[in-house]
Amino acid sequence: NMSFHRQFLRDENHTVVRLVPRHLRTMMTTARENGDTVKIAVVNAPDPVVLLAAAMSFDENIDELTIAAALHEKLYNKPLKLTTMPNGVEVPSDSEYVFWGNITLENDDEGPYVDITGTLDDVRQEPVIEFEGLVHRNDPIFHALIPGEAEHKTLMGLPRSPTIKDAVSKVCECLDVHMTEGGCGWLAAVVKIRKNNPDDAIKAIEAALAGHRSMKMVTVVDEDIDIADPVRVEWAMVTRWQPDRDTVILSNQKGSSLDPSRYSDGTTSKVGFDATIAFDADKSGFMSVQ
Q: I need a labelling partner for 68 at 20 to 30 A (CA). Which of 91, 134, 160, 249 fits?
């Protein structure tokens, strides 16, 4: 497994790590049930393909390092070189820093932290990492990801776009997906489709929300709309969307822990906007001349 996890610096060789319910959390829980620790390595500033692969998540247990290796081979026409740390964990050898150690059996307070929404996240009891050592390159450069800034949002949101596109493509013709800046690169998206059936936009809304379960809001537009331009998306809303006809609201949905407005039980409601031209309408009156 290879994934991103923020870490609260507790002292000179311990951090408290946020583990959401995904692969590494499952590995840690299984190990703890047997009274075991988990050997890990924390990598700082590897090649960008490693960062991108680590930001991906899969339903199956796929080693993200194999994705990084494939991307590296495709982009650079050479293998991704690995180095084995003293605890046996393999890491990309061109990283600026590598720390190695164990996820212990201890928990401690993690936070407070500003997260991707720019708001303070909850302080939780999370696992403690004990570090045994580190190595670094000559004159190393520490790569700091600033919470809530563009790089944070890009690394979290960019891998979600193909996931959503794949889900929507199963129900209609999906052309593109954009995770919006106002949605923090995580909670909202705009989906561009080519309508071939009257209910394509509604099916796209439902598929998009299912394809990225943390997402709270999705807007579906026609192929003539620049989905990366919020002005054009809003223009499509005001000229093609009727609130009482073209809005889907889903209640009691799994929410994102990053959404401070979620209900106390972790659920949320979600909304989808159909900002496409009605299938049987005369499209000439809806086209922009600007």
A: 134
Residue 115 — very low, low, confident or very high, per pLDDT cuts 50/70/90?
confident
What is the torsion angle, in degrees rounded to the nearest 10, for the CA atoms of residue 194, residue 197, residue 199 and residue 202? Answer: -20
Structure tokens of 168? 């929507």
Residues 255 and 258: their CA atoms lie apart, in Å, by 9
Active site residues: 115
In the chain, CATH 2.30.110 sits at 7-145
The predicted-structure confidence for 214-260, as pLDDT tens digits, reads as follows: 999 999 999 999 999 999 999 999 999 999 999 999 999 998 988 99
Q: Six-digit token pair at 169?
A: 């493509």
Q: How many helices (H) and strands (E) does the chain have?
A: 7, 12
- Dist CA 135 CA 40 (whole Å): 14
The CATH number of 159-286 is 3.40.1670.10
Structure tokens at 166: 């794949």
Residues of the chain within CATH 3.40.1670.10 domain(s) are 159-286
Render pLDDT for 19-49 as a digit per residue (tens, 0 to 9).
988 889 999 999 999 999 999 999 999 999 9
Can you give the length of the chain in residues?
290
Q: Which CATH architecture has domain 7-145?
A: Roll (2.30)
Is there a contact between 189 and 220 (Cβ–Cβ < 8 Å)?
no
